[in-house]
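ingest -> validate -> predict -> emit
validate: passed (alphabet ok, no gaps, 219 aa)
predict: started
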Amino acid sequence: APPQTTRRLLRGDLDNIALKAAAEEPERRYASAGALADDIERLLEGRPVAAHPPSRWYRAQKFVARHRGGVVTSVAFVLAIVVALGVALWQASVARDELRRADALRDFMAAAFQEGQPGAPREGPPRITDVVEQAIAKARADTRMHPRVRVELLTELGTVLRIQGRLDAARDVLRANYDDALRAFGDAAPLTLAAGGELAYLEFLSGDFKAARSLADRL
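emit:
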């Protein structure tokens, strides 16, 4: 064979065995023909040979080559565990975010309605629209509120104004809220779609069918 082919065939364990068998120093050679034969059997069986310098990586490669099926199965099993753990951690994170969101909405609405209580019995109970408008102003002014909570909250409060017949006020709230959602989350986010859907429905109820159709097409 050409020298290049010969070098390729001899590279690795066979190369090491040949070099050990032909070493100039007697102490570096195989102690006996049986030791040489044993190393050749190891080579044929895919086990580590004595002629190769000690190496954990080399022994690991040999082990993987001999037990390829088992190693592949084990790796797949470990990957499945890692993926399952990642999914579980992600689900736990989502659950925590949802809990924080629910707590924030609850605390805000409780505070908004408490502020809407009359200062004295003679003043009488406030109208629901007054309480909602106060809550809207509070949500817009709260710089610490998470953007997701603010968008969801203003969508619901704008809907209440729409149901109460305050279409102009509701339109102002819902338009600004939809623009905020677009900037913060993009046009495909569920919160953006919900905010835009409520605004489109309000435009339809207000008789601005062109604006309603245009927004509905975009959504």
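The mean pLDDT is 82.
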